[in-house]
Amino acid sequence: MAEAEETSRENLAGTIDPNSLPGVGSSEKERRLTVAPREKGISPGSGKDYNIFREGAKRYFFPTDMKRYETFDHTADVGIRVFGRTIEEVFINAAWALFDLLTDPDSIQETLIREITVEGADREDLLVRWLSELLFLCEGEGFLFREFSISSLTATSLKAVARGEIFDSSRHRFKTEIKAVTYHQVEVIHKGETWVGKVIFDI
Questions:
Q1: pLDDT per residue as tens digits for the range 137-195
Q2: Do 50 and 174 touch, CB atoms closer than 8 A?
Q3: pLDDT score recorded for residue 65
Q4: Where do the structural domains in the chain lie, given as residue ranges?
Q5: Which of 23, 34, 41, 78 is deepest in the core (most CB within 10 A)?
Q6: What fold, for 2-202?
Q7: CB-based contacts of 155: which residues, under 8 Å, 6+ apart?
Q8: Higher-confidence residue: 120 or 176?
Q9: Contact 77/202 with Cβ under 8 angstroms?
């Protein structure tokens, strides 16, 4: 198990490692962007269980010839277009892109593990709720994540693990303020041999 952990940290490119398997918009901007709902005192998503995740999650390692994401401008917002060989990789790369925009992932140490369960109406809703949950954990509880594993993903539910640490002002610097994950132009589609996700952040 420790050997698999070390392998995952040293190699972010390649194929799935079987050894690692352990068992609104603003009126000022003159537009309307719907953001993920946030109930009173409750982070977005439902059925959340924040126990430490110990088994069942798949580790994905990404090929060096495929970029994880690209950004595009949208009015005063920023959008990301995320790529993956599988839909799981799209969700993982979208999460990685979120924290890459927020801060420097290389400054994040993997000292904590959080299990996250999210439900949605469809793939697009699920992507928004997944990213909104991660953003909530960052803003509300100070978590910074750099690695993600998925144990279960369907069209309406996701169970995953995020690895990282609590924000440390002596080591971490925020690059971009992201206020919300919007539903505007969100999509998750399959193009040939590649899955592509698209989402816009309100900044």
A1: 999 999 999 999 999 999 999 999 999 999 999 999 999 999 999 999 999 999 999 99
A2: no
A3: 61
A4: 2-202
A5: 78
A6: Archease, Possible Chaperone; Chain: A; domain 1 (3.55.10)
A7: 122, 123, 126
A8: 120
A9: yes
